[in-house]
Design brief:
about 300 residues, mainly alpha, DNA polymerase, domain 1, 2 domains, 13 helices, about 60% helix
Length: about 300
Amino acid sequence: MSTLDTLSDRYLNYLLIEKGLSAKTLESYGSDMARYLSFLEKNGIKDISNAGTPVILKYLIFIRNEGLGAKSRARHLVTLRGFYKFLVNEKILKHDPARLVALPKSGLKLPDVLSVEEVKLLLSIPDTGTPTGARDAAMIELLYASGLRVSELINLKFQDINLEAGFVRIFGKGSKERIVPIGLFAKEKIDDYLKTSRPLLLKNIASKYLFVARAGKPMTRQGFWKLLKRYAQKAGFIKKITPHSLRHSFASHLLEGGADLRAVQVMLGHVDISTTQIYTHVAREHLKNMHEKFHPRS
């Protein structure tokens, strides 16, 4: 096994053991590293100390010419930044050659977000007078209030919610635990659902899941996507609305309101803050629009 392969394996083991990344995320990092090492080998580079900033830039140009879009190139650079930072921390390299390499700008595509008014409209659609409507209203409200991934939402256990304290405990990617506030509106919707609708949906069946579907089982990802799509259509939205749209909106609205980027990173459960930084572009766009609208000399 070559030195480069050894270093790559050490880095991936570090991500698995120290960072606790999920198998899917680790697979992506491994694929990126394999592609980079293949590039180094083809260019006759056997020592990582010879793979400095010019080589990294040459690699990004290479994968662009291979047809990779800006978003994929940005992901590759995030992988390499982590790799080189690891090498510096391990005293294998003295300097980080990837630190000053900028992410491809067009790779930071603005995520689809809803305005605050659009969120309010969507949240008003479910019929809370029915058991399923009350459940759906609570789920959508919590999704927006806490920025959950859809997989995190449907797998919430009854014991993971603390209405009195006003927070939810999430086990995200890589089984990383985080605590996220849920807010007053979500708290009220969930409380109403638990008191009136959940017992009716369970019909004397015990379930460990907070939000239940048939026979006390959790809702599937596809099931939640379908109901959200149905409510979006009833609200008259033309744009495509997905569960991730509400997660994007959660982050963007927090940043627009002045929230700290690190705090948003923690609430979203992002391991790398570069993943969260995409939302700062949404906030900047909002500020730019406000400036153009209200400044007398914009």
